[in-house]
Design a protein that fits this description.
The chain is α/β, with parallel strands linked by helices. The chain has one domain (3-264): P-loop containing nucleotide triphosphate hydrolases (Rossmann fold), CATH 3.40.50. It is 36% helix and 24% strand. It has helices at residues 3-13, 75-82, 107-113, 130-137, 147-153, 155-159, 170-182, 200-215, 227-233, 251-256, 258-264, and strands spanning 37-46, 49-59, 64-68, 89-97, 100-101, 115-118, 188-192, 219-223, 236-241, 244-250. Strands 6-7-8-3-9-10 form a 6-stranded mixed β-sheet, sandwiched between helices. A hairpin with a 2-residue loop joins strand 4 and strand 5 (100-101). Helix 4 (130-137) packs parallel to helix 7. It is globular and about 45 Å long. The structure holds adenosine-5'-triphosphate and magnesium ion. Adenosine-5'-triphosphate (ATP) is lined by residues 46, 49, 51, 69, 71-77, 87.
Length: 267
């Protein structure tokens, strides 16, 4: 069975879809193709704990999505499920990126297929310089940005290329973590709280860089406690609550809807 006919069958058969408000089902283009990225009715568990409870959404190429929700809503778990990290375990659902079935892959295969997860703790590798951290990301093809291009986007990293990565400031470590993803051939960038723990002036700096990455057409999902900042950057917003999608609309809709923000984001 071809990938596209399997997708069709799933769409037709999936009357059991639940967990999302009306109007949040992934859409198909006129040609019957899925969006650039889509996840469909994904469910994931940490052991017995049922956390991701039927999440579905799609992302168009070049779009920036703000994935929002209260503490414990399941944002990190959703990103980890999409990146196919072993925990939480994905037990049901489909994940497609540029026609590739990520739900059938392990994390390293999903990474090769173009998922670039930048986790909250940034995972800079100890004992390696900035440049070695970047070169390690390029150890296997497919390659993304050249080091020269990365240093153009982040001149501070270029100046510190010989410095050990873990001795960088928090903001610089975040730049390095994003750069490591760009050094691979990333098709979908997943950012988990990129502003976490950073001073406002550094947040502004990272924001500017993300604007630049956006203008280059990088498809991105950003999870942020600083929802307003994320909404200003994003085209669309998806709100999670208790592991389910409760809103999928434009970022402007969320900025304009104080009740919605109060109910699900407490802001
Ligand atoms: N490794 C784990 N084992 C068991 N339960 C976990 C694990 N990690 C997270 N959880 C639980 O899963 C739920 C969702 O957590 P998750 O980290 O995905 O939320 P989040 O929306 O990212 O929250 P935050 O805004 O605090 O980062 C929470 O109830 C959390 O306690
Ligand atoms: Mg989280």
């Amino acid at each position: 069975m071809s990938a596209s006919s399997k997708t069709q069958d799933t769409l037709i058969a999936d009357d059991a879809f639940h967990g999302a408000a009306p109007g949040v089902l992934p859409t198909m283009s006129a040609g019957g193709q899925r969006a650039y990225f889509s996840c469909w009715d994904i469910h994931a568990y940490y052991g017995e704990s049922y956390i991701v409870q039927g999440v579905s959404f799609d992302v168009r190429e070049g779009e920036i999505i703000a994935l929002l929700g209260r503490n414990g809503a399941g944002k990190t778990s959703t990103l980890r499920s999409l990146a196919r990290v072993g925990s939480p375990a994905l037990t049901h659902g489909e994940i497609w990126l540029d026609h590739k079935p990520l739900h059938e892959m392990k994390a390293h295969e999903a990474a090769r297929a173009g998922i670039g997860l930048v986790p909250e703790d940034r995972r800079i590798i100890q004992g390696l310089t900035v440049e070695e951290n970047l070169k390690l990301a390029q150890i296997a093809p497919p390659h993304g940005w050249s080091l020269e291009r990365i240093y153009e986007l982040f001149p501070r990293l270029g100046e510190r290329r010989e410095q050990e990565g873990t001795t960088l400031s928090g903001g610089e470590q975040q730049m390095l973590a994003i750069s490591r993803a760009l050094a691979r051939d990333v098709k979908l960038l997943l950012l988990d709280e990129p502003y976490e723990g950073l001073a406002p002036v550094i947040v502004q700096e990272i924001e500017k860089t993300l604007e630049q990455i956006k203008s280059l057409g990088m498809t991105t999902i950003i999870v942020e406690q600083n929802a307003i900042a994320a909404l200003h950057l994003a085209d669309r917003a998806i709100i999670l609550d208790m592991g389910q999608v409760v809103f999928d609309g434009t970022a402007q809709d969320v900025l304009d809807n104080a009740d919605l923000r109060q109910q699900y984001l407490a802001i």
